[in-house]
Design a protein that fits this description.
The chain has a domain of 57 residues. It is 62% helix and 0% strand. The longest helix is centred in the middle third of the chain and has 29 residues. 4% of the residues are buried. The mean pLDDT is 79. It comes from Pseudomonas aeruginosa (strain ATCC 15692 / DSM 22644 / CIP 104116 / JCM 14847 / LMG 12228 / 1C / PRS 101 / PAO1). InterPro entries: DUF2061_membrane. This is DUF2061 domain-containing protein. Keywords: Membrane, Transmembrane, Transmembrane helix.
Length: 94
């Protein structure tokens, strides 16, 4: 498989990729937050409120964190050594 296709969702080329990733994470987070809050309180209302407030704050923070990470985050390491091999970017990223 082509590694560029596999990682296309989270690549730098699609500015909407962080939004899609954020929305799917939000659904997961809402579900877990409700389950935990309901289990601890036994109240659907309290569980629902906690499940809406806490993940909403985290979702917004996660979106901006992802945007910053794309801009300033991990960069590919520069190849070391001598010769013309340094002129060709490596496909491998550690």
């Amino acid at each position: 498989m082509n590694p560029r296709v596999i990682g296309a969702c989270c690549g730098r080329s699609d500015p909407q990729a962080p939004l899609l990733k954020t929305l799917t994470f939000a659904i997961l987070h809402f579900s877990i937050a409700f389950g935990v809050a309901y289990t601890l309180t036994g109240s659907v209302l309290t569980g629902g409120l906690i499940a809406l407030i806490e993940p909403s704050c985290n979702t917004v923070a996660f979106y901006f964190h992802e945007r910053v990470w794309q801009r300033f985050g991990a960069r590919p390491r520069r190849e070391s050594g001598h010769g013309h091999g340094n002129l060709v970017p490596s496909e491998r990223r550690d």
